[in-house]
Structures are given as structure tokens and as C-alpha cells.
Amino acid sequence: MFPVEQVWALARAWFAGWLDPAWRRRTLEETERVFVSVGFTSPFWSLRPPAAPGGAGR
Amino acid sequence: MPNELSPLDARVRLAIHRRFLADERAPSAADIAADLGVAEADAAEAFRRLATGRAIVLREGAGGPAIRMAFPFSADPTRFRVHSGGRAWWANCIWDALGIPVVLGADAHIEARCGDCDDALSVTVQGGVLSHTEGVVHFAVPAARWWDDIAVT
């Protein structure tokens, strides 16, 4: 469970520059940095379990 | 899975979002083809490449690929409705609902329903600040498994 304020911080970080013509999908490392920047640091937010397919969130 | 988009795919992605914003619904490949002056088949193939790259989510039908999600927008009604400037959009989740005012660069009012208890949650973004912050958000699926079934996530 996460406070709405924290998810708002995630949305602001995640969707910044969303309509920039130069937008590109984040790398796994970039996605991790966004999560960490808003305090999502628990294993729940890990993108690297052994069985995970290659990919970097959305 | 490349992170960079080809020039055509970048144009198609941007056109999808602009259409979603303007029309409050998902555009078709024909819409985007008309907007960009490209063949509908080329727009449809761009849709598929963007879906492979997880930039959008499609459903395939007899008429070709149709957009199901173009984050933060949902083509289908959801528990998350975002109102701004007399217009409204469906969002895929509360993360996306909060993303719509970011993408818009405008104030917005979000009406959400709890996926657990169906209680209503109302959130307003005004001047870049949340004016109603009661409640918590429940993410059901760990991040590494989001794309196992993005609709469930």
C-alpha cells in the first residue's frame, strides 16, 4: 500500500516529457532510477528477479 | 527490445497520444494514417512495432490492430476517469490517471473506484499539487511481473 502522494510523485517523474518527439522507452536502469527517486525501493519494485523477462517496465 | 523508436514509429506514437487527447478516445490506424499522410498498412505495422516495444497495448481484430492502451490512456472504460477542461479520459490505473494531468500540463479531477472495496476516491490536481490526498494505492502485481498480463496489472 502506497500513499497517493507517492504515486503522484511517480506519475510526475514517469510522464515528464511524455509528448517529447524524442521520447524513447526507458532502459531497465533508468526505470530503476525513477522508482528509487520517489522512494519505491522495496523488492516489490525490483525489475530483476531471475525469472523476469528482459524489459524495463512501461 | 530496442528502446529507440524509428522516425515513423515516433511520429505514430506521438500522433496516437495527440489524437487521444483531442478526441478523448483511441484512434484507429486509419486515423493515424490520415493524420500523418502514410498508408494505413504502414500505420498498422507501426502500431504492432510499438506494441512489441511495450509503448502501447493492442487487440487484434478482423479490421487489424486496435489500441487498447496508450499509456496513460485506456481505450476501454476503467475504474479511473480523469476530467480536465471539459474533457475526460479513461486511465489504466491510478498511476496513469495521475499521469494524465502531467501529460496535459493542466489541472485535472480524478474519479476512481477502489479495486478492493469499490469505494469512491476523488483526487484533484491543481497547479501541480494534489488537493486531496486521502487514501492509499494498492499495486497488486510486483514490477517484474507487470507484463505477464498488463491488463491485470
Q: In summary, what is this structure?
A:
The complex is a heterodimer of chains A (58) and B (153). With 58 residues, chain A is mostly helical.
Question: Can you walk through the features of this model?
Answer:
The complex is a heterodimer of chains A (58) and B (153). Chain A has helices at 4-15, 28-37; one strand spanning 2-3. Chain A is mainly alpha-helical and 58 residues long. Chain A is flat, with a radius of gyration of 12 Å. The relative contact order of chain A is 0.19. The radius of gyration of chain B is 16 Å and the shape is globular. In chain B, helix 1 crosses helix 2 and helix 2 crosses helix 3 (40-52). Classes of the chains: A mainly alpha (58), B alpha+beta (153). The A-B interface holds A 1-8, 10-12, 14-16, 18-19, 21-27, 35, 43-49, 51-58 and B 1, 3-5, 10-11, 13-14, 17-18, 53-55, 71-72, 94-96, 98-99, 102-103, 121, 123, 125, 128, 130, 133-139, 142-147. Strand 1 of chain A pairs antiparallel with strand 9 of chain B.
